[in-house]
Amino acid sequence: MCVCVCVCVKLCVRDSSSEMKIEFAPLYVPLRRRLQTVAVVQWVFSFLALAQVSLAAFVLLCVSDWWILGVLYAGWLYLDWDTPSCGGRRSAWVKSWRVWTYFNDYFPITLIKTVDLDSRHNYLFGFHPHGVLVAGGFGSFCTEVSGFSQMFPGLTPYLLMLPFWFKIPFFRDYIMCGGLVSSEKASASYLLSRPGGGQVAVLAVGGAPESLDARPGALTLQLRQRKGFVKLALKHGAWLVPVFSFGENELFDQMENPAGSTLRSVQERLQSIMGVALPLFHARGVFQYSFGLLPYRKPIHTVVGHPIPVTQTPCPTKEDIDALHSSYMEGLTQLFEQNKLNYGIPEDKHLIFT
Q1: Domains of the chain: which residue ranges?
Q2: Of 73, 234, 301, 354, which one's alpha carbon is 20 to 30 angstroms from that of 4?
Q3: Distant-in-sequence, close-in-space partners of 28: CB < 8 Å, separation ≥ 6
Q4: CB neighbour list of residue 199: distance below 8 Å, 6 or more residues apart
């Protein structure tokens, strides 16, 4: 057992209108906690800056004396362009990196099974809520640390991500190694139509727009009008499974952006143009707890619910889609209500569907 002395220093910065207290991290902490923080730093960097760095590296490679390598990679990129829509290129080695153990332990992230799933079927997991950076989804389905393979033998999970990210050189190859694939319709259809079953497409149903509502205590899900995933499940006969990640919205604070506000209008406009949302989030830093882009150390419990059987319907009607969508919403609500007290959500709090 490691015994350490914790020193906490608070620095007060005063100006004419406000007082901000900066609470520094303890001077001495166990090495394991330091490694957990480093693991999360690299993960946040991967989400926020690695794509830009990868693109810059490719451009510099093309204009340097090593330009031939850039040309060769461009040729490879052309030949490999459709891979993110055809199951990707996962790497068991990357998914088992030690860094993911520290990443999961930082929060920590726990994957919870409520029932066995038959590997003879393909599944579409609806992940809720999206949160800011889908930490629970990544930790549970893109690493081997979560124990998914042991809990659900015979199933292979793929986390769906915006197609935009798979167009960026080098970055695309890295994220595919973790089991991330494009979220476009063709990609999901490829997985859900595979013969023999065993494929799991994990989709954050609320998408990027839902991240704009991600803040502590938020229980608003963009689901009522989102029925495309239901239609897809019907077409391929893939069973639907609601998944709720308790604690996902507790990781970051976000600037106030209520519906109708100027900030929200700008964010929605940029989202419609760029295809990605830009939540103005903040939490803690590396060496202090008062501000920064690292998530808070809040536990995440990702609960996989009961499957909803789906009969393959190549040309589903509106009535078919609406009926299955209603069943899915009921299943998700039941999953939430049955587990909320276990994870600190008051009895009088309920999901809000928009």
Answers
A1: 35-48+80-353
A2: 301
A3: 4, 5, 6, 7
A4: 122, 123, 155, 156, 158, 191, 192
Q: Are 277 and 267 in contact (CB under 8 A)?
A: yes
Residue 340: CB atoms within 10 A of its CB come to 18
Peptide bond between residue 30 and the one before it cis (omega within 30 degrees of 0): no
Name beta bridge partners: 254. 281
With CA atoms as reference, report the closest residue to 308 among 241, 208, 230: 241
Instruction: Give the distance, in angstroms, between the CA of residue 197 and the centroid of all CA atoms in the same chain.
Output: 24
Please, which residues bridge with residue 301 across strands? 110, 246
pLDDT band per the 50, 70, 90 thresholds, residue 6: very low
- What pLDDT digit, counting tens, does each position of 51-71 carry? 999 999 999 999 999 999 999
CA distance 90 to 146: 16
Per-residue pLDDT tens digits for 77-131 = 999 999 999 999 999 999 999 999 999 999 999 999 999 999 999 999 999 999 9
